[in-house]
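Exercise 7. Given the encoded structure of a 396-residue chain, write a plausible sequence.
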């Protein structure tokens, strides 16, 4: 009898009850805007920033409307001007080059390795081209952050980290987002905490924190922030930093605070599921599992494997056969962007030259979400289905 999977790859767990209660409290008093607080009240957004800064070991935190807004605000804060080149990954998602383009910057794409991390040799060659790197930890894969930071520091290149897929991850025990000048996180539904949309950024640099806060639209109410620099820092930038409004509201902050308190346990649960799928895929003929470095603490909220040097029609057949059995695989090698699988040559607002070594990797990447709604038995079944269908096509 043929096994089929009947679960959903897009269904998230319900919002926790304590987050629902916190949201209801905000709705009942009606003070949704982050600066609309009662006398002596500490707003939910300010408390979220204070708690997330402590959780990440950062001095400062700002909550904003989305992860993409956090990246664009960070680029503005570090001084990227229209026409400036900004280095970034060839393997990433559209909001990353989109953030660069939104401030008038020009993305300069850096290659990807078979480990699905930024190609550090290619990066080293391209460091003279820009003074900022928007580093995307795409799909939760961390590169050798020691080497990357040594290279960028020596070249005077400022690193902004896109941690949309690495909230809860670490490199040699240091939280992802804490190696560069600014770390940016997403709270969108398919990330590690869920407020529908939302973003956070952290930094230890008081000037960058003050500029980011002003950019987000503080209306000079920066004293209502609990994880912000001293008022005199804002005095240096408040008249020269434009308001590009993108604040988080108290409702989303209330939903997020209980989820962040439970992040470590959620990471454990994701990784239990990831390991079940990874174990089931190992040794499949024609399929390469992406090995994780020992220094990396990862969050297995999605899993990738490679079908290196397969013909496009073979990969399309694997996708079709798995889908027929209820398993949804995404492919970064398609001719057209689909859903969350666009790549550097999809973004025609950004100039790019062919990157043959990276194109070979991108053409092989299979991608799958691992929702916490899956049981461990579900994950074992999914692995069996993928293994069977990859094997059937490989041997045909």
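Solution.
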């Amino acid at each position: 009898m043929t096994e089929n999977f009947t679960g959903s790859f897009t269904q998230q767990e319900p919002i926790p009850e304590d987050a629902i209660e916190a949201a209801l409290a905000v709705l009942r008093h009606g003070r949704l805007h982050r600066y609309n607080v009662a006398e002596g009240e500490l707003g939910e957004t300010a408390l979220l920033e204070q708690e997330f800064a402590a959780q990440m070991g950062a001095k400062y935190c700002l909550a904003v409307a989305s992860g993409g807004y956090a990246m664009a605000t960070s680029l503005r804060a570090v001084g990227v001007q229209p026409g400036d080149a900004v280095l970034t990954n060839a393997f990433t998602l559209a909001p990353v080059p989109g953030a660069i383009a939104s401030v008038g910057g020009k993305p300069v794409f850096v290659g990807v390795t078979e480990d699905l991390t930024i190609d550090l040799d290619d990066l080293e060659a391209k460091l003279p081209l820009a003074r900022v790197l928007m580093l995307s930890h795409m799909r939760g894969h961390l590169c050798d952050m020691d080497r990357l930071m040594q290279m960028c520091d020596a070249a005077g290149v400022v690193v902004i980290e896109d941690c949309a897929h690495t909230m809860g991850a670490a490199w040699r025990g240091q939280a992802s987002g804490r190696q560069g000048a600014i770390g940016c996180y997403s709270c969108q539904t398919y990330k590690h905490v869920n407020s529908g949309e939302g973003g956070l950024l952290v930094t230890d640099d008081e000037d960058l924190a003050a500029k980011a806060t002003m950019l987000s639209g503080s209306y000079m109410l920066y004293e209502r922030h609990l994880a912000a620099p001293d008022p005199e820092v804002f005095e240096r930038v408040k008249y020269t930093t434009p308001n590009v409004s993108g604040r988080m509201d108290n409702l989303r902050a209330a939903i997020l605070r209980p989820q962040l308190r439970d992040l470590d346990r959620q990471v454990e649960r994701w990784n239990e599921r990831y390991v079940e799928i990874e174990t089931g895929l190992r040794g499949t003929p024609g399929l390469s599992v992406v090995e994780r470095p020992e220094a990396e603490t990862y969050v297995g909220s999605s899993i990738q494997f490679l079908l290196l040097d397969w013909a496009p029609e073979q990969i399309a057949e694997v996708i079709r056969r798995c889908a027929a059995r209820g398993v949804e695989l995404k492919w970064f090698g398609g001719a057209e962007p689909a859903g969350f699988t666009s790549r550097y040559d999809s973004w025609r607002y950004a100039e790019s030259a062919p990157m043959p070594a990276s194109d070979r990797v991108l053409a092989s990447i299979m991608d799958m979400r691992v929702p916490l709604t899956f049981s461990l038995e579900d994950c074992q079944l999914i692995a069996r289905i993928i293994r069977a269908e990859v094997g059937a096509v490989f041997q045909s």
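Remark. The chain is about 40% helix and 15% strand. Students should compare their own answers with the one above.
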